[in-house]
Amino acid sequence: MKDKIVLITGATGGIGKAAAMELAKKQFTVIIHGRNKAKTQQVCEEIRMITGNSKVDYLVADLFLIAETKQLIREFKEKYERLDVLINNAGGLMSNERENTAEGIEKTIAVNLFAPFLLMNGLSNLLKASPEARIINVSSNSHKLNAKPDFTDLQLVNGYNPLRSYGNSKLFLIWISQYLAKELKEQGIGHVTVNTLHPGAVATGFGTNSNLGPFMNTLAKWMRPFFRTPEKGADTIVYLATSEEAQKVSGKYFVNRKQARVTEKYYTTANEKLVWDYCEKEVSKVE
CA–CA separation, 62 vs 163, rounded Å? Predict the structure, then answer.
């Protein structure tokens, strides 16, 4: 594993940091991403010190913004000639009040869907340059529990609530992963795989700043002590990044290292293609 290059988004805390730590111990070249430069730099140094791996680097970008995500892609390409593992871990659960980014995109779909879409496609040549590349997208069981898409209003201008928007974005992330896996297979590209996973309910800072209303805020606080550790939450990510079995599988969804069923409630090949095309159209609007 020592020559493998991995890029992990949202890796300054939680399961992203835990995965970065574990892969650094396995002598990967690890590039972590964060939004805050000082914090990202600090975590980079911490991983180097704890693991003894000097091949840990960092990139800074606000993945809520298409322009900054595209800049991150450019910076990565300037530094590296290939990418062996892309882990799209960065994500967010927003608050009760619907918010747009500075680019006019609803925040949940911006970071949970458009950013991974951009990174998968923008770094595709570097992934294809690897003899054995893996794309790992962190989804959620929320795609079963909370998704209720309106295919005429994917950004939920009407009918927004944070859990619905989050569930939709995680369902769409599974769909674009499946779509890309099929496209690669049709192109005869068997050495690049794309899989998704549910990490479980993990005791991290995720969602702690989200205002979900009095009841949900209290429930989340009460449940947090029962959640799994970041290391356990990162286990399936590390498994998908390193195991020989996972390299033989593409277009699947994993829970606790095992393939699991994706809800079929809203799925059609037409809807899957609609979401892919929508992502393509929206991200092309920003340089």
Answer: 22
Cβ atoms 119, 86 nearer than 8 A: yes
| Long-range contact set of residues 223-227: C-beta below 8 Å, sequence gap at least 24 | 226/201, 227/200, 227/201, 227/202, 227/203
- The domain of 75 spans 5-283
φ, ψ dihedrals at 146, nearest 5°: -120, -15
Judge contact between 151 and 216, C-beta under 8 A: no
Contact (CB, 8 A) for 10 and 89: yes
Write out the two tokens for 107: 């925040």
The reported pTM is 0.91
CA distance linking residue 138 with residue 135, whole number of Å: 10
- Closest to 9 measured CA to CA, from 78, 108, 86: 86
Residue owning tokens 């390193």: 242
> Residue 138: beta bridge partners?
197
Sheet holding 253-255, edge to edge: 56-60, 29-34, 5-8, 85-88, 133-138, 192-198, 253-255, 258-260
Residue positions annotated with a catalytic role = 166
Domain count within the chain: 1
Condensed to tens digits (0 to 9), the pLDDT of residues 150-184 reads 999 999 999 999 999 999 999 999 999 999 999 99
Q: Alpha-carbon distance 167 to 139, whole Å?
A: 9
Domain of 163, CATH number, reads 3.40.50.720
pLDDT digits (tens, 9 = 90+) for 125-141: 999 999 999 999 999 99
User: CA dist 147 to 126, 166, 169, Å?
Assistant: 33, 7, 8
Residues 136, 85 contacting (CB under 8 angstroms): yes
